[in-house]
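Protein in question kept underneath.
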Amino acid sequence: MALPVIDTVNTTRIPLSNPNKVSVYVSRMLWPTKHSAKKPKVIILAPNGLFFYAYMAASLVHDPIVGVEMLIPLNELPEETIQEIKRLDPEGSSGLPPIVLVGPFKRCVAEAVERLGYKTLTICEKDIFETSARVAILRKRIIPESPDGPISLFIVSVSQPYDSLPVPYYATHSGVPILFTHPDRLPHATALILEKLCDNVVYTVGNECLISEQVIQQISDIVQPPVRRIAGRNPFETSVEFAAYYDPETKLGWNRNRKGRGDAFTFTNIDRWDLGIAAANFAHHGKHTPLLLTECDELPPCVRNYLDFLRPPHRMPPMPPFMHSFIIGEQRDISFQTQTKIDEHIQMEHK
């Protein structure tokens, strides 16, 4: 009997299309036993249908909080999430309880957690701008153990999740908070928090259709350092630009930009931000993977070229660096053909 192939020698697929199931699957990969090293002390729950809250929650993962983010519905604590909470048995840290909910969850969700015996904290203000400001203040109080986390801020657009999807991966990796803006107007709540954090370096992610030059100027009038924009001509290019970006002044950026260095990445379908966020903990553990975007049935040329640039030359005898990729979703999300294309472009280059 032929067995279905879902992995290749250089790629590992998370073969699920439900974001809360992906969250649990990734958690079990990262911490396969109850005694795994650096097991999470805080579980951060975010809604699987509202990207704003899922994005802003990502900065709470980084040490010293020692968190893991999981996506769930607004009105339900799924059974698989309940079992994972019990398995991880978080103890809380840095003044935070074991379970932190970020977003407008129904009260029944926190009550379900509390019935398991865990204390909770819910972070949700009157809108996404005030909520992200509160998360940012919390993250600045619990100083991230990274060089760029304490001195940097991201600002992304509320208009769509695609260009800025790589941002929560880096926030997971570094603890840099994420704030939000309208494309053509800086919200009052975001302006207020910027005044309190005016000595931080601000990075916007996305092109001028997502964050206008007018908004850049409004931000620049509040903060002292120059505002940096990270953007490509489309979301695929932005994911590449973000993976390669590095600011030597603040140390912010993945800095994956040296020819032949090899590397590891996570791939998600541009239309499935929820699956991408559900696997964002890969950015903080294991291979510490940046996110690259793809389509279901086609690997964009800019992504292919970037992988070709990074992949190491063939050596005799073969030796590291080697490349690897995590593929998030079922084949209806990223086809096996696209997966094999990714595999081809991260294999050692044979002349």
